[in-house]
Amino acid sequence: MIRPQDTFTRERKNLNGMWSFRLDHDGVGREQRWAAAPLTEAEEMAVPASYNDISADAAVRDFSGDAYYQRTVRVPKGWDGQRITLYVESATHHATVWVDGKEVASHSGGYLPFEADLTSHVSAGQEFLLTICVNNVLTFQTIPPGVIEDTPSGPKQIYWHDFFNYAGLHRTVWLAASAQTRVEDVTVTTDYEGTTGTVGYTVVVEGGEDVTVRTELRDEDGQVVAKGTGATGELVVEDVHLWQPGAGYLYTLEVQAVVDDEVVDSIHQTVGVRTVTVDGTRFLINGEPFYFTGFGMHEDHDTVGKAHVDALMLRDFHLLEWIGANSFRTSHYPYSEDVMDYADRAGIVIIDETPAVGLNSGIGGGIFGGQGYQTFTPETINDETREVHARVIRDLIARDKNHPSVVLWSIANEPESDTEGAENYFRPLFDVAREADPTRPVGFVNVMLAPHGKCRVSQFADVIMLNRYYGWYVNTGDLVAAEKVWTEELTGWASEGKPIIITEYGADTMPGLHQLPAAPWSEEYQVEYLDMNHRVFDSIEAVVGEQVWNFADFATTAGIMRVGGNKKGVFTRDRQPKAAAHYLRGRWTARASK
Ligand code: GCB
Questions:
Q1: Domain limits for position 475
Q2: 337 and 230 in one domain?
Q3: Among the options 11, 254, 504, 546, which is catalytic?
């Protein structure tokens, strides 16, 4: 599956804008066949957007169930004889698609795209009624998991991840056309020796026979630097211009499907030539030790929730540059494909994470406290969940495998990892990731509840990723004690002989609250807390990265530990700096200029 492109052989039509919208409060939409006719009692809804924060109605914000989106689509006349598909970049969390009332596709996995082949259901030069039902219910067999509990006010969605369960069509919806004989997939791998680069490629062609594959690699000036023939091959690039952190040089690989000397399909794939290796406790990009600076982030904004908006994305990348960050983690789900493309161009390094967050009964809403469930049992997170998890890992890698910015896969955030159940659950999932991508290291993010010596899953990881809140959730307000115990734990991890990235450390901070001497929640405390952490990291050689939690304040479910959401942002939710932003800028820009 290739994201829709505009090329000499392909066309795409953006279906974003205003759609008809109706929440199915009584769960009757399927029985009453809402998809078969124009929605009645409908409102308008913007696509892309989360629907939750658009209206002023709590029943919309907190809705669980089916949300119907509908619009008329006209198929261009010129698309006659073409393969016509619908590509939905993100429907959180489940989607069912109907064309004129006929079900044509369904998909689970709210942060990854899916495609529906509409060729036999629509006609060029005609219109059709497109309905997408987006369901946001989380169960123990979804990734991320959740459960519906009975409460005095009715059934309520419970989940264990510390960000609001936004729902809707969060990214672009495309109608696309290509030839029937087409390039269905391309995988690139890169290497170099001295000044000579190599770009290996494997192309999958579908829908035709006797198809020849031709490839052409161009540099950023548009000059052809190598050509190939055949579905697999290796292109040699003399005087290679490497993709580097901070300098995202990209070649473009044009892949053509040729029948009887006619180019029937042509797609473009950007390529960054770089290597990633783990060597003892070092993390190497292009053979050079790399130290991650940056953040765990969120796709999260006022009003639009989890929607991708180009302008808002750009602001975030500008702030990353301003603060001197070289990387981020896509906590806690795959981000928009536009974000991944931009990071490739900007030379920002990414730890790419699956949506497997909240697989831990010891944590509720990001904070400690039992939930009354056991994590891994036949009734809770079970073999079926693991199958879903495996599929999500494969789908993420299939989508993001060609991004040079991605250097490490994170297959889960803070799962239970100190039990036999956890060990059995995760062992095969590491194999799934390595089989899908033998070229990148694989890890998962360890939680404080499974400290060094107790964790049974880190043994499978190439890189150790740790989230720690010494001085916040524990040793609150006592940075002297925090520094001591944190150093002790980290020294233990360092003995594993693997690189360590601190993927979360942070302190909630109310912008504008000042306190001297510093105390939790003040801007001063956030700075002193970060500074303490940095002393600890700088004392341990195996630490190869620091990503602060979080880039910006973000929305969460209501809770007594959250004041208008999670306030651990270094920037406010509207992307203005707290004092910590200036402090980090000093540290990271000094490090970058070394
Ligand atoms: C964590 C989670 C993150 C939370 C954070 C917090 O460990 O990974 O999702 O938001 O803690 O602020 O509690």
A1: 293-592
A2: no
A3: 504
